[in-house]
Design a protein that fits this description.
6-stranded antiparallel sheet; 29 strands; disordered N terminus; disordered C terminus
Length: 398
């Protein structure tokens, strides 16, 4: 949600405001952004806040969780006509207290998976809009009801009733999953059922209230792992109506080893194997298309068959930065810092805030009878907004 910014004056002796487009004073609520676009051209743009360099982008995006008056300066570098302009941003306390919890769900597009018609429940005739509303009811506020994103690439996009500020030196928001740690495992690292999902953030730069601006990945511990595949694209193909299942055996829980075909841009191909525990269709029925394609960062496999015969898999946790990667009581492993943001080329970028958050399943992995590794989540909270209630540690089941 963009700021309601009030321009109190618009005069300057040297540069006409009709050309510069920057006023002398702005008033805004905290946790709402100010976006300023100077009309005057130049070779470089230098924005200072309280005498510290804040940004070198042409447009200023300013957002803070703290009230006060911020003295700002803009220097436009130009050999013939350099521009210097001072202005203030006055940040007020919000009139209605913000919620720390999710208030809006903008998109829900799961990849095929064994839980995609169960979390939330799909009923015959449900449209995309109906499913989107079910997701919103599940994860908004303190509802904390789990949803599933399916195999690699499946995603959900949500937001809050304010911009999440990037507070220096602090994690900015938290997301709940359903990972757990096994009692018995062969390796020293934390493992059990960990199904890492990747987090992305975006700023509503065009201020239209929609998540259609540039996205930035929050680079977790495996971003630079040589086994991680960047710009990975996978396409899933809906199973034909006349498909004949190919079970492993009459006794095996694997009922169809050629259930949903997939191909990727790294030369890989294969099938999602269906199991006997989820008999419904795994390709989302509320989506009319016969194929689904997703692009993102694909993490290395984390599942190990510790039994050696396919009966006991352990999915090991990664270091940090992923959803559904560690138990919910591991607060530091389930919290995320906007300062981790990188652009599509892997370059670090400074974002003063985030208006939209997207989570997608970060691996293309099937672990025998356990099925695909699908990220689940049940809610999120802005860590900079105090909550009058205790943050829930558990998961509600519907």
């Amino acid at each position: 949600m963009s700021a309601a910014v009030f321009c109190l004056t618009s005069c300057h002796q040297d540069i006409p405001m009709v050309n510069l487009g920057i006023d002398d004073v702005y008033v805004v609520e905290r946790m709402r952004k100010v976006i300023l676009h100077p009309e005057f051209p130049g070779k470089g743009y230098y924005w200072y806040v309280s005498d510290s360099l804040y940004s070198t982008e042409r447009d200023l995006v300013f957002c803070t969780a703290d009230t006060g008056t911020y003295h700002c300066r803009l220097h436009i570098d130009d050999l013939d006509n350099p521009v210097y302009h001072s202005f203030d941003i006055v940040v007020w306390e919000e009139q209605v207290a913000f919620s720390p919890w999710i208030t809006e769900v903008y998109e829900f597009c799961p990849a095929p998976g064994q839980f995609v018609e169960e979390l939330p429940i799909y009923e015959d005739g449900d449209t995309y809009e109906v499913m989107l509303n079910k997701v919103k009811e599940s994860i908004s506020g303190t509802n904390q009801v789990m949803i599933s994103l399916g195999n690699f690439g499946g995603y959900v996009t949500f937001g809050f009733d304010h911009s999440v500020c990037n507070v220096p030196g602090e994690n900015d928001f938290r997301i709940w999953g359903n990972a757990f740690i096994a009692d018995s495992k062969k390796e020293a690292r934390m493992g059990g059922s960990c199904e890492p999902g990747i987090v992305m953030v975006s700023i509503d730069r065009n201020e239209n209230g929609l998540p259609d601006d540039e996205w930035y990945e929050l680079a977790g511990s495996e971003y630079t792992n040589p086994l991680t595949k960047h710009n990975y694209t996978v396409t899933y193909y809906r199973t034909p109506a006349d498909h004949e299942p190919t079970p492993v055996s009459a006794r095996s829980p694997l009922t169809d080893t050629t259930y949903i075909r997939w191909t990727d841009n790294y030369g890989g191909q294969g099938y999602m194997t269906k199991n006997a525990y989820h008999k419904h269709e795994w390709f989302p029925r509320w989506i009319a298309d016969s194929t689904l394609t997703f692009t993102g960062t694909c993490l290395p496999p984390n599942g190990i068959d510790e039994s050696g015969n396919g009966t006991y898999y352990v999915l090991y946790a990664y270091g940090y930065g992923y959803v559904d990667n560690a138990p919910n009581d591991s607060i530091h492993l389930n919290s995320y810092n906007i300062d981790w943001a990188v652009d599509r080329n892997g370059n670090h970028v400074h974002l003063p805030c985030a208006d939209f958050v997207r989570v997608y399943t970060g691996m293309n992995q099937v672990c025998g009878w356990l099925g695909e590794s699908s990220t689940e989540l049940s809610g999120a909270a802005d860590l900079h907004v105090p909550d009058p209630h205790a943050i829930p540690q558990g998961i509600k089941a519907k």
